[in-house]
Write a structure and sequence with these properties.
The chain is mainly alpha-helical. It is built from four helices and two strands; from the N terminus they run ααααββ. Strands 1-2 form a two-stranded antiparallel sheet. The longest helix is centred in the last third of the chain and has 15 residues.
Length: 103
């Protein structure tokens, strides 16, 4: 949707869907789940913002491995995800993001 100046209008929604999930699920069903209602995301969002302030200015000049090490891995650690480092060949996964360390 475009505004009067031809620029897109901002939506004031707590989620950026991009068509991945149904709007009905996000707006009606998900808020009913206690796991969703009880989430307090302010601290993690603040921490991610600090990481962005520290690393963001250097990211445009960084290569993929540097972005992964200095930005992505720090956020995965912050969110409690386990990850395995890149293995170095195109025939294998660059990284695996796991919800537990037992594998």
């Amino acid at each position: 949707m475009s505004g009067p100046s031809g620029q897109g209008e901002l939506s004031f929604s707590p989620v950026e869907n991009g068509g991945l999930y149904s709007e009905n699920f996000l707006e009606s069903r998900l808020p009913q789940w206690s796991e969703y209602r009880d989430l307090d995301c302010q601290k993690p969002m603040d921490d991610i913002g600090l990481i962005w302030e520290q690393e963001g200015p250097s990211l445009p000049k960084a290569n993929e491995a540097q972005v992964e090490e200095h930005f992505v891995q720090r956020i995965l650690d912050l969110l409690g995800h386990a990850w395995t480092p890149r293995l170095g060949t195109r025939l294998r996964l660059d990284a695996a993001c796991l919800t537990t360390r037992s594998f």
